[in-house]
Each structure stands twice: as C-alpha cells, then as structure tokens.
Design goal:
alpha+beta; 48 helices
Amino acid sequence: MEVKSIVLGVEGMTCNSCVQTIEQHVGRLNGIHNIKVSLEDKNAVIIYDSKLQTPATLQEAIYDMGFDAMLADSNPQPVLLDTIFLTIPTQSSLTSKQICSTLLKNKGVVDVKMSSDQQTAVVTFIPSIANGKQVMQMVPGVDLSISAPEVTPGTCESSSWSQASSLVLRLKVDGMTCHSCTSTIEGKIGKLQGIQRIKVSLDNQEAVVVYQPHLITAEEIKHQIEAAGFTASFKKQPKPLKLSAIDLERLRNTQTKGSETALKETSSMNDTKTIVFRIDGMHCSSCVLNIQSTISALPSVTSIFVSLEKKSAIINYNPNLISIEVLRRAIEAVSPETFKVSLPEEYDSVALYPTLVSTLQSPHPVLKDASQPLTQVVVINIERMTCNSCVQSIEGVISQKAGVKSIHVSLTNHNGTIEYDPLQTCPEDLRSAIEDMGFDASLPAQPSPEVQLESHRTEPSSQVSPAHLVRQETKTVSKCYVQVTGMTCASCVANIERNLRREDGIHSILVALMAGKAEVRYNPAVIHPSAIADLIRELGFGATVMENCGEGDGILELVVRGMTCASCVHKIESTLMKTNGVLYCSVALATNKAHIKYDPEIIGPRDVIQVVKDLGFTTSLVKKDRSASHLDHKQEIRQWKRSFVVSLVFCIPVMGLMIYMMVMDSQLSDAHAHHNMSSEEMEALHSSMVLEYQLLPGLSVMNFLSFLLCVPVQMFGGWHFYIQAYKAVKHKTANMDVLIVLATTIAFVYSLVVLLVAMAEKAKVNPVTFFDTPPMLFVFISLGRWLEHVAKGKTSEALARLISLQATEATIVTLGPDNVLLSEEQVDVELVQRGDVVKVIPGGKFPVDGRVIEGHSMVDESLITGEAMPVTKKPGNTVIAGSINQNGSLLISATHVGADTTLSQIVKLVEEAQTSKAPIQQFADKLSGYFVPCIVAVSVVTLFAWIIIGFVDFEIVEKYFLGYNKSISAAEVIIRFAFQASITVLCIACPCSLGLATPTAVMVGTGVGAQNGILIKGGEPLEMAHKVKVVVFDKTGTITHGTPEVTQVKFLVEGNQLPHNKMLAIVGTAESNSEHPLGAAITKYCKKELDAETLGTCTDFQVVPGCGISCKVTNIEGLLYRKDKMVEENNIKNVTLVKIEENVEESVQPALIIDAELPATRTSQKYCVLIGNREWMSRNGLVVKNEVDKAMMEHERRGRTAVLAAVDGVLCGLIAIADTVKPEAELAVYTLKSMGLEVVLMTGDNSKTARSIASQVGITKVFAEVLPSHKVAKVKQLQDEGKRVAMVGDGINDSPALAMANVGIAIGTGTDVAIEAADVVLIRDDLMDVVASIDLSRKTVKRIRINFVFALIYNLIGVPIAAGVFLPIGLVLQPWMGSAAMAASSVSVVLSSLLLKMYQKPSPEKLEFRARGQMRHKSPSEISVHIGIDETGTGSPKLSLMDRIINYSRASINSLFSDKRSVNSVVLSEPDKHSLLVGDFGEDDDTAL
C-alpha cells in the first residue's frame, strides 16, 4: 500500500462553505486518508492511497463539484509512514479481526497485521495524521499497550533502520520472451509496498530486487512473479544492501535532526546485546531466509545469523527496545508458524561464535563510506589469449555489458579485473560472456571480497547525489510502441496525444495515423506499456502493445569505400557499436556494405554516416528504387514482346508454306474432282511439286523446312512456358502454361516421330506433320500475354502516380536563436531525421510530414487529398509529404519520416488493396485449379473417341475430314484427325481469362476510386458494397458539420438601451476566452457580424461547467467606433443618410478620415457579463420571463442549444446555436433511397435533435441516444435481420460499428484518411461520395460479371467445337485457330476491364435535376424514433411533462460531464468532440462516456 500526497490548485471557491463541501465530499472517497483545503492559498493538500486513487481521479472529483482543479505538481510525493507494535490483552471483548477492522476505519491508519498468536498487532500509520497514543485509543473498550517503543519519524534512527534493513534479492526468472515481459514484471513488482528498486534482465533471465523485509518477504516477491505467469527461483540469499549515494539523498530528505542525532544513534547502537536461540522445525534454506528477513526487519534488531545445521539463531539486539520473550514470540510467528524456539542452557554461548558476533556488532562501516556508490570487483582467470588484439576485444565487449564500470585485462597474468554493479550483473554472467567470445574463463576459488572503491572526489555527498539522481532519472525513460486501431482522422490523433500527455509517468507520445501506431516514452517506475494501452482503450480506440520493440529501430544500408582488410571492418564495427544509440552493426568487406540498426530517438542516419566518415572512409546511402517500376510491368512487357517477335519471325514462313500447300491442295482436288487419287498417282504428283520433293527417302523439303522453323520457336519462343509449366507440375498444380506446353510438345514430338518412321521406312509418300502448330500457337499466346501486361500496366497508373509524388531530396537547415538561419544542406530524403528543420521553397515538394514553424504559403494537396483548392499553411499547421508548396518559403519541423509518412502509408494501403482478392476471385481461382485437369481429360477422351469412331465407321471421318484422299491409309487419316481434334481442345481452353476477369476489374476500380477521392481497401469491400441494403449514417460530423454555428440571435432589450452592435461586441469578447465549442461559435459569429478580426479585452473570466461563464469586458469602444465610421462612410458614399442605430453620435470628425482617433471624451467602460443556461441566470439572481423560456423550449425542440446573455444584470439576448446540416446531405439521402436502399440515422444525441435533423434530410428511421458501444450491437441487430449494412461515420468513435458493418465508409476531411476500421475511405468531406462509392461498386461488379461471360463463352463454345461435336454442320477448327481464340479471350477481358476507366461519378447537378420537386422535408409524424438500443419507436413528437423533466435532468447531468471536459481540452478544429448543453449523451463524446 503506497501512500502519497498531492497538492491541487482549486479555483472557484468563494467562502468557507465551499471549503467544507470539498473536504466532506473528497474525504468520503475510498482511499483518501486526509484532505486539507485552504481558501486563501486556493489549494487542497490530499493524502491518499495511490492504489485506489490517482491525481487525475481526485481532480475529476473536485471538477464534478463545479470547481476548477489544477495539478500544482504533477509528481505526487510519497508520505513517510510509521509502525507501532500493540499488545492485545488476552481478555479482550473483541476478536483480533474486529480490532483490525476498527483500527483500519480510522483516518491515518494505513495497514494492520496480526501475529500468529493474535497477541500482537503491527499498525502502520501516517504520523502527520495520528500518533501512537491516538492509535492506542482507537479501539473503545480495549486497552492496547505498546510492546515496542514508538519510533518517531524523521529521526536518523528510523531512517537508518529502514535503510539498513533493505536486502538485495537475486531471482532466476524463466519464461520471459521479450521486453514486454520485463516491463510487466518491473511494473507489477515495483508497485508492491516495500519494494525499493527492481531491475529485470531479459538477456540474463534474472531479476534483482532491493526490498524492505519488514514490509514484504522474499517468498512473497517470488510468489508475485509467479502470479504474473513466470517461473521464479532464488539465485542467492538476500543480503543487506550497502547505502549508495541515492539512498543517502533519501535519508537526507527524511532527516530532521543533524549529525548530532547520528552520533547519538551510533552510541545507542553500542548498547546492543547478543542472544543465541535454539530453533527446531527448520527444514531448508527457505526457512532460514524467512526467519532472517522477518526478524531483521524489527527496528530493535541490529543483525541476525541463522544456522540450519546448528539449528540456532544469533541475534544482535537493543535490550532497551525489545525483550527476549518478544523476540522469541516473533520468531515463532514467522510463516509457516511451526518453529519451536527455546533458550539454550548455556545462556552466554555467544563465545562459540566470537567471529560472527564481532562482524554482526559493527554496522558502522556501512554508514562510514555510504557516500560512495556500491560496486564490487572480481578477478576472472582467462586462458587462450594470444595477443593484444584478444585483450582489446575482451575489454571492448565486456565494457559494453550493463553494470560493468571498468575492466582491465592482463595478457601476462592471464586474468581480467572487472569492477561491476552487483544490482545489474554478477561474476558468473561476466565469466560466461568471456567464454562466449571463445576464451576459457574461470572464477578464482575464493570470490574476491566486496571492495568499496575509494572515490577521488572531494565534494561532500550532498553535492554528489543530485547528479547521481539526474543520471537515474534519465535512465528511467523507456520507449514502447502501441498498435492503435479505430483512428480515423487528425482529431483522433490529437485526442490520444492530449489525454496521454496528462498521465503520470508519460514523457512524450507521438501517434502516426496512417501507420496506426503510437510511440510512447514513459517512466517504467510509474507506468508500464499495458497500462498505457489501457489508457488508449479508455478513449474508445483499440490498443495492443507491440511486442517487437525493434519496430521503432531505424535500419541503415550504407556503401563504405576505402576498406582494405578485416582490420578496417573491425574498426568500423567496434566504433559504431560504442556509439550511443547504435544497436547492431555488420560490415561486409566483399560487398563494401554496412548494415546498421539504430534507435532514432538517440541517433540519426546522418550522425552514423559522420561517425564512419570521421574514421577516414567515404560512405553513401544504398540507393533505393523509388520508382514504381514493380507496377508498370515493363519487364514482363519486354519479355513477352521479345517472345512474340521471335515466334512471329519463324511463324510467317511456316504460314507461307502452309498457305502455299493449301492452295496447291485445293487446285489438285479440283483437277481430280472426278476420282480419288491412288498412291501411285500421289507419288508421281509429289515428285513434280517443289515442296514435296524428297531430299532423303521419306523427308520432303516442306517437312524439313517446317522442322527447321519449328525448333527455334519451340526452344526460344516457348522457353518461358516450359519453366512455368515445370514449376507448376513440381508443385502438383496445373495452370495455363501446362496446357500450352502439352499441346505444343505433343504436336512437335508426334510430328518428329512420324517423320523418323517415314525416313526409316523410306516411304515414297510424304507423311502429314503438325510442325506448323507450335509456331502459330506461340505467336498468338505471346501476343495475348504482351497485350495483357500492357493493359495491366495501365491499371496500376494511379498507384504509380502516387509513388512518384515522393520527393528525393530535402534541404535541412540549422537555426540559431530567434530562428536565424545558420546553415543549410541538401540531403537524401532518407537521411531526414525526426525533429529536423526542413526548408521548402516555392514549387518544391514536401519531403516529409511535418509542422510549419515559420512562413506562410499556399499548398497544393490535390494529388493526396483530391481537394482542388490550395490550402493555406501558417505556423502550427501540418503539411503532408508529396504535396507541393506554391508561393511562400516554409520552414517545417519533421514529425513523420520514411515509411511513417502519410504518403507512404497511402501507397501501402492502395498496394494492399490491389493485391487483395475479392471473394468472387477466389471462386475463379478454385475453378482454374480444376479446369486444366478437366481439359486434359476432355482432350484425351476426344483423341480416343475419334480413333474408335474412325475404326468403327470410317465413312464419318472420310466424309468430314477435309482433303481426304486414297493415297493416305485409313489408319493414318483416323489418327491424324483424332490428333488434330485433341490438340485443338488443348489450345482453345483458357483458364487465363477466368483468372483475369476479377483482378483487372478490381485494379481499375480501385484506381478510378482513388482518382475520385474514394479509397477502397481491396476487392472484398468493392464487391460487398453492391449487396448493401441498409445505409446507416452517424449524425454529428457526417450528416451535420460537427461544429456548432449560431443560427439566430434574439435581442431582449430595446436598441436605445443597448445597441445591437454593442451587445454583439460584448458577448463576442466575453466568449473569446472560452474553449467550449459553443463559445467559439458565438465569437466567430460576432466577429463576422462586426467585420472585425479582434475584439475587446476580457478579464476575471470564470467557467462553471454545465452552467455558463462570467467575466468583465472592457475596450469595446474602439471596435464600435470603427464600425460606426464604416457605416458613416458607406452612408456618405451612397448619399443615403439613414440613421442605422439610435445611439450613433453626430459626426465629431470629418467623415472621410478613415484612421480617425477616438474622441478624447470617450472613456473605456467596464461591463459585467453572464452567458449560460437558465440555471446559471437563476443562480445569479436573474429571472427568465415566460416568453423567453417558451422561445428557448422551441429552439430546444428543433434540436438547437439556446444560450442566454446578460450584461450588467440585465437579460439582453437569446442566442440559438445548432450543428448545421451539410448542404448535400438531403440529395445524398434521396439518391440512396432512389437506388433502392434503406437509410437509417443513428446518433448518441437526444431524440429531439435527431428528429429535427432527420426531417431536414428526409430520413424516416432514427435511432437516438445510442451509446458508442451500442452502435455495434445496433449494426449487428440489422445484420441479424438478414440485411447487408453499410455504416457511414466520421469515425471518432464509430470505429467499432464501422468494423462490424459489411462495408464501413469513413468520411475524412483533408488528410484525415480513415485507416483501420473502415473498408472505404472518402478523402473529401462530401456525402455524395457515399453514393459514388456504392455506384462504383455496382459498376465494377457488373464489369466482373461481363468479364466472366467473355471468359466462359470462349471455353463453353470453343471446347465442343474443337472436339468435333459440331462436325456434322461443318464447324471444324485447326489448332492455330484455337490458340487465336484463346488469346482473344484474355485480351477481350482486359479491354473490358479497362472500359471502367471511363467511369464518371454521378454529378450532383444531374441528380438534383432528376430529383427536382420530389425532395421534401419530412413531417415529425413520418419519422419513427427509437431510443437507445430498443426497437420500439416513438411515433409522436409530443412529450409529456414527465418526459420533459427527465430530458432536462438528463441534459444537465450530461452537460456536467461534457462542459467540464470541453473547458480544458476541446479545440474547435476537432469536430464531434463536444456535447451541446442539451445533448442527452454528448454525441460521440469519447472521453466522458
């Protein structure tokens, strides 16, 4: 239990009644020990239990009472506790449990522990609240007496006791796998009472704990580590810790008396006595440890030594403070309470242990050298060292180890002397580290004694310790990465950063929206990563700690020139490894490359390069390929073009030969039409034709030429197909390439075999070969593939354009004081480090994401956000990498560099989208898998079918086989015909077009979407969007603008009493100090009306959350005078002198002097202003008239917030403020309905506001007062009805619902690109893009279906034709015709997909024209409103009086939550973060809820 004290500043207290209220309310809270509120100092000092309360919850508690609370000091101070031993009388009327609970009920008592015999109570209390006497009297009816004198806090005695009794415990911890494990253990154990320090080492798998044994035992620590899921065992017994400088500092903090007290202390210690007890019942060293740790904790015990063998304990104690009997009872009470303790007969047997006693009795050396830090020295024997290089390498490696202060290795003595910190490492670890380097290392037989190193410093300890403390402080900052989901825009980022910075223990936080990652630097002593993730989850986002902390490591690839040998490599590596911030370094001499991992928080790439340059080497970055070369398919296009040309060169002669033969055949067949030729005639004819002339018996010129032309095509043209087919078969799959290889190889091999047989037989008639098939096939296939890749390259254009936006170089500048430019240098964009100041000249690209620190300019962000208009940038604005600076020079501070920039993340997103598969695509892939084996089977069946048919009924083949004549044997005709049919089947079948049908359409669709400002994450949402039946809209920030605007101002006093301009000036000035969105809306309106940039002066500004503001306003005369001047000048110019206001004074000065000074007679007047709700006015004694109340209720019925304004005690204005509907919302809703979709509005706002907004945009079904957590359930409910749901939200807290919906559509503004939860991201804040995204989805899916039709038609019609099914009607295909058809199918599918590029978004003008006269506002009775998650609708808008009362009470309760937050944290640029005063549950109020 850790007790802490915190001082909170409290504003808004007016009298002692406020003080009492706060003290009573906060004092009642759980875990509060004491609270003292001071009206004069405006603060509250609270002593609390840090396990039950935190500064934030205390601040919150005071807020909730209507006061303002600030943390005066962010670090709570620990409170000094005291302990008292009370003896409970044996005849007590109360049990020990009752006594415990009675004591704990008293203020100031922190903890009560009972001894095993229930006779002694150890009470821990806060001495500033209670003392020992008061503790004794806390249990009425029971006479408690002190068994050990109370030790007053602050004396050196108590301090030295608590310190001297600190023990060091070393535990072996198994089961740790990463740094998250170490943080978990450190976080959990560090919080336990009595733990002073803990260090867990992942490398050594151990934990070193410094603890106070009177508060916690070693067993308990071990048990707690095991409870966290790890296995723990004791490495060494706990041993007393010597005081270090940091402990001295703590001693000094608690010390009230000076060195005299210390002298008294030492003298009192000399009054100690020694006693030896016999202890029975000890079994193992654990029992020894338990007794030693528990008894040494007693303030009166100086030292204790327990021997398991001798069954004895030697205790050095102060007889003035404790008796022998109490000591005996204390040992018996030690867990497991089974020890039997007795005094031996020889009472003075201390002489048996003279040496031990002497060491035990001299605790003074501990105090003597306490100013020196605790270090130990060990001498390790090292063998197998050969030269000085070995010495250097051992010293280099071991000096890098944690805890090693210094090392000296001696080659001659074969040993190493190491000075180390025993809390961080031990001799065994050092020995094994040296062995790991390849040397033999052993520890000497006697471990060297602890050496207290003499410090050469002469300063007293008081000067040493603060430095030591600072060093400790810097070491305690750790870093972790948290994966954050559900962020949709910059506002989410700001929300997380703002809320986490307030938390104790968090030094800094940087959130990257696109990467969905937060980098947090924190103090592990105060907070641990899992708690940080919990804090983010409480804000409504998903958060998980990223285990691989190396995620944040920078990686650098360098080319290093000038290295000559391994010595150079060692020199670079050792120097870099010694450099702070470099985590890993590897240099390769052969490739001249260095691979370096570094921590970008400590060191940057430029610093690393400089280190290498300083060693005398030249170095440069390894150039990365920044072009989109992997997207433009250039390599594939080149490869297929080459393949096509090779095939074509050889194919043209083959085609020529084939055509010649066909012509000759047809002439011959005409000449001999009257009879079939015999083989003799054929022989004579062949010898007369040039091409049929036989070079060798059976080998004609025609066949020889065909063979020569076919071989190169088969080898070179088909090389790629063979490789791919081999790979496919090897992996037991069959693809397109397998079919092609089968067809061509079979044709080629068959022809070759037939030819060889003919030559062997010396045939007179030349055989018919298929050497023409492979060249023709390859020509068409390579042409098809070439065209296909050209088309694919086109589909990736959008992504390639995005990648090309990235700048390649950056100008880094060094700034002096007052932002004076000292130097600038051009560096590669990869060398820009976070925090660098980068200069961007007009026309230049922003190399990284950053924040403007100097300069004004217009920036073109159109290529990233799609926003056509340039955006103004001034100091404080954020800029995006890749956008173009237009007219002014800017200096920006880099916030996200490298792969973390928005542009890099968008590119990654689009890449992932284009490679992700739509579900329909997976179906096509599966189909293709079965397709190839089926086609091969069909081909084989065709072959055998025709062979069988031929031999059974030769007439069919004879009849339908073109060019049949008697010179060819029947068997050859049948085989040739069957073969031709089966090869054609193989050629025409094309799984390729099936495979292309979806991805080409998805790629073009996502590309077109990106160009139109619609980012679609892959094929699935693109395909799913067309199935959507219900579109659910969030209200605030989606249907409405999300920022309140003044819709009406009603003046409640006559113009002659308070001119309207004057009232606006007063109200605008008063609200200018408010951070509440309503206040900002009023100020904006007043500035616009008065046409002024600045208003008057506001003082004594006070906010009461949930009610309103009060302040004093001065200096508005100049503003009004300027306004009057402008009015006068206009009047003179227009020559129409109309008196605009009753109090416009006659022109005192010439009318045309514009910059006229104020007349001296006008003095500045002070106005007291009140602005707020009814309650605020009545609290300040102002009566709200009935008609004003009615007007307010009317506004509230319409979903507006009505605010009253009073000046100098007179109610003078009613201002109506509302979140206005976006202009395009009504048309978007109407268009979606006309597309056949059901439109629903879902909001956390009250039913009145929801009904009002719904009637304006034409939505008839509304779910109001839906909590963010219920939005998910609501979406689920709609899905359970069998409807596909699209959820449209601005995503502040709609992210769970966006993820749950079938299609989540997030509306971004500017760079606010929703990443995690949504499937579709609309970069522009335009609801018409919702219509466009669904329309694009429908068009894409339609295109995919058309593609499938194209692909299947070829196969379904082509395969039967090729197999000869349609032979009776004369349809016969040659193999080359089949391959041409196949190539055509692939090309037609890709061209069909490319038609999507012509997609145009539905234009609002056309839609408006179509909807003219049909859009109308809905009447309240047409709208069904469902409250919360309930399904029952409230049809009628009429509310009973009871309902009204409930609504108002809800409203005021909620406004307490919302306003309290707003005052401190809401910035107007963050939509959806406020709750209007009457909002029932602040719409999307992400923190209050």
